[in-house]
Every structure is written in structure tokens, then in C-alpha cells.
Amino acid sequence: MPAVKQLGSRIRELRRRLGLSQGELAGEELSPSYVSLLEAGKRTPSEDVLRGLAEKLNCEPEYLLECLRDDLGADLELELKFAELSIFSGQSQAALDAFETVAKRAAEAGLPRYDALAQWGVARALEGLGRLEEAARKYEALLRLRPADRGKVSSLAVVVALCRCLRELGDLDRGIEAAEKALAELRELKITSTTEGVELVSTLVGLYAERGDLHTAEYLAQEAIEQVRGLDDRRAVGAAYWNAGLVAHRNGHHGEAAVLVERALAMYAEGDDARAIARLQTAYASVLLSVVPPRPDTARQLLDQARTALEDIGGAVDLAYVFTNLANAALQVGDYDAAIAHAASGLERLGAEHRLQTARTLLVMAAAYFRRGDLGEAKRRQETAAIRLEASGANRQSAFAWAELAESLGATGDTERALWAYRQSLMRLGHRSTLDSDRAVERAEG
Fold first, then answer.
1. Which of 37, 227, 229, 314 is in the most buried spot, having the most CB atoms within 10 Å?
2. What b-and-e string marks burial along 149-180, b requiring 16 or more CB atoms within 10 Å of the CB?
3. Sequence-separated (6 or more) residues with CB below 8 Å from residue 324
4. Torsion over CA: 277, 281, 286, 290 (sign)
5. Domains of the chain, CATH where assigned
6. Residue 433's pLDDT is what?
């Protein structure tokens, strides 16, 4: 029996049991004809109306409300599917609007599981819009829910998404802490060799690589590759190769990185995730710009393909990565004006929250200004990039940025500040002057 028909039958049965007419049940708030339509299953009342009727019928409101919740659940599931399509097609604002509507309806109806699914969608839509701080807070709120209220939302998927946001925000230590905690729980349960387990390890690889702990990143990357050998999930396999390629790239093993990213591309190419393929093309282009000799022409072809796809289905951040690599490609062929313009396009799309990628884009722009002879502009951007990287805990990248700034300062004859910048670079790599230590001891003893 349809839920609204079942509701009508319950109202009629309770009314007759109490000896009430339809007019008496209607009272001053409703009309007898409306009660008649309710009992016939031809009207769907609001929750407030049902609570009022329950009071007159001497029954618990839940006895009437539960009749509508099955229908509402089916309705919400359909709305969630449409919202998911918006996410998949890169329409983040439309997805956000749809998920927020579902969340409100689910909360009002007391359906926590649907609310959790909607909040999961809200968080991903916010991430797609580049509103990373808000997205991270939503992900953290989901992790605080009881498992029963979180329903079908996977806690591991939420942790991976949270760490992805924290990586973009440059909050690397916090991301590593969250991922390590989740990984320890998986290892205790001995269930790391699953799709979500591999994605978690791969995410942790990326965080350690960004922070400059390449030894740990390499160890975990190999662990992820071992774990995927028995899996049939091409997305998980692709993620493992993708992040292993990132580590090889950061270690300067660009040939190995190219092979690993090519394998990842092959895995994703067999699926239908066009956005992931475009992002991998961007990553592959980045590797090609670093090999010896670099291959800027091939890289630009890949980036043009990625840009075309991401303009339809990607977010602003995806395109920012493309523009940063286009700037690097233009830099390598000596087109400094184009490099600066591409970098500016990337910065415009990144906004204020994407600290790590903003720093990298600033460094490419600084290099273009430097080679064009605008040393003042170059120095300003290099110093800003170095400070942003340092604040993110990306010490290895920060060290390189300070070293590049030192070279720029030296080229302008500012020897004193150049030495200072070189010293900043060494400090980020863990070097501490023994002379400074001796002076500190002397001061303490004095």
C-alpha cells in the first residue's frame, strides 16, 4: 500500500475508534473536506499538521509520521542522484544548491542517514568550488557523527577527502595526522588491501611528498603498489601508480616517474572518469617538463587536451594546475610574456586558500620575470612563495624557493640578503650552524 494511503487508513481507524466525525477531528485548524481527502490518501500533510492530528487522536506522532518517511526517503534518494550527476559533470554550484536542499528536508524529517549523504555532497561541492576551509569543516563534522547516523557515507572516503583539502590548504601536518590515524585503525583490523585502504595510503604518500619526507613517501608508495596487486579496481591501481610517480618525480627520477604516471593513465583510461584522466594528463605534463631534456611541446599538447576537458567538467583548481604547467612550458621555450600570463590565470583561479599551489605558481611567474629582466618583480614573488611554503610545513620546497630567491638577490648585487636567503634555505633542510650553537652557549654561560 502506498505510504499516503496507509497514512489515511491509520487516521480513519483512529478517528472511528474515538467516535469522532471528520468535522470534529478537523476542528478550527482544518476543514472537514481536507480530513476526508487525507483519509482517502489524496493529500500529503505537513509534519506540523500530522503532529496536531496525532494529539487529537491520542497517538504518538511517530505512528503517523513513519507512513510518510518511506516516500520521502525515495524522493530524497532521487534528488541525491541528480545532485551526484552535477558533481560528476563539474557543476559544483548546482550540486551545492541541490545537496543543501536535500540536507534541509532530511533534517526537518528526522532522517539522519539522508542528511549525512547530503552533507557529504555539500562538502564535495564546496571543495569543487575551491571553498576548502568550509569543505574541511564539513568533512570533520561527518567524521564526528555516530556510524549509525553516518549511514552509507564511508568514514575512509571522508578521511581521504579531508586530507585532500588539507593538502591543498597547506596544512600538511594535520593531514598526515588524520591519515596516519585512519591507517593505524585499518592495519589493526588487517584490512589495508582494499580499494579505500589503497586510496588512503596513496593520499598519505602525497602528503609526505609535499612535506619533503621523501623516504617515508617512497616506502608508502611501494606499499600501495604491493596492495593493489590483488585488486581489480582500476581506480585504486591508478591512484597507487599516480602517487608513486609523484614521489619519483620529487626525487628527481623523472624517467621512472613518467613510466608510473603512464601506467596510471592506462588504468584510468579504461574507465569513464574524464576529470581524473584530465588531471593525470596535467601530472604527466609536469613530469615531461622536468625530464632531461624537457619535452615542452608534448607537455603543451597534453595540457591543451586537459584544459578542454576541464573547462566543461573540472573545477577552478583543476584549471589552475593546467595554467601553472602551461606557464612552465612557455618559460622553457622562452615565451616569458605568455608564461606570466598563464601564471596569472592560474593564480586568479586558485584564490587565497590554495597555499601550496599558489606558491608553486608564484615561483614559475618569478622565474619568467627574472629571465625577462624584471628582477624586482621576481624577488617579490619568490619571497612570497617561500613564506607560503614555509607556513605549510613544506620544508623541502621552501628550501628550494629560498635558494632561488638567493640567486635572484645575488644577480642584483644584494650580496648580504642573498647570503641571508641561502641560510634560510639551509635551515629548511635541517642545517643548523655550529657557530650559532657555540654563541648560544656562550650567551647562556655569560
1. 314
2. ebbebeebbbbbbbbbbbbbbbbbebbbebbe
3. 342, 343, 346, 357, 360, 361, 364
4. positive
5. 3-59 (1.10.260.40)
6. 56
Crossing angle of helices 112-128 and 155-169, rounded to 10°: 30
Q: CA–CA separation, 137 vs 129, rounded Å?
A: 15
- pLDDT 10s digits, 205-220: 989 988 888 899 999 9
CB 123 within 8 A of CB 92: no
**Amino acid identity at 330:** A
Phi, psi of 315 (to 5 degrees): -100, 175
Confidence category of residue 441, pLDDT binned at 50, 70, 90: very low
pLDDT tens by residue, 237-287:
888 888 888 888 878 888 888 888 888 888 887 777 788 888 889 988 988
- CA dist 37 and 40 (Å) reads 5
Cβ(182)–Cβ(223) under 8 Å? Answer: no
* Radius of gyration (C-alpha) of the chain in whole angstroms: 29
CA distances 340 to 181, 314, 337, 403, Å, are: 41, 23, 5, 21
Cell for 133?
576551509
Assigned C-alpha cell, 253:
627520477
Of the pLDDT bands very low, low, confident and very high (cuts 50, 70, 90), residue 139 is very high
pLDDT at 389: 76
Q: Distance between CA atoms of 317 and 82, rounded to whole angstroms? A: 23
Q: Is the CB of residue 278 less than 8 Å from the CB of residue 310?
A: yes
* pLDDT range class, residue 298, cuts 50, 70, 90: very high
Cβ burial, residue 130 (10 Å; 0-12/13-18/19+): buried
Which three cell numbers mark 72? 520521502
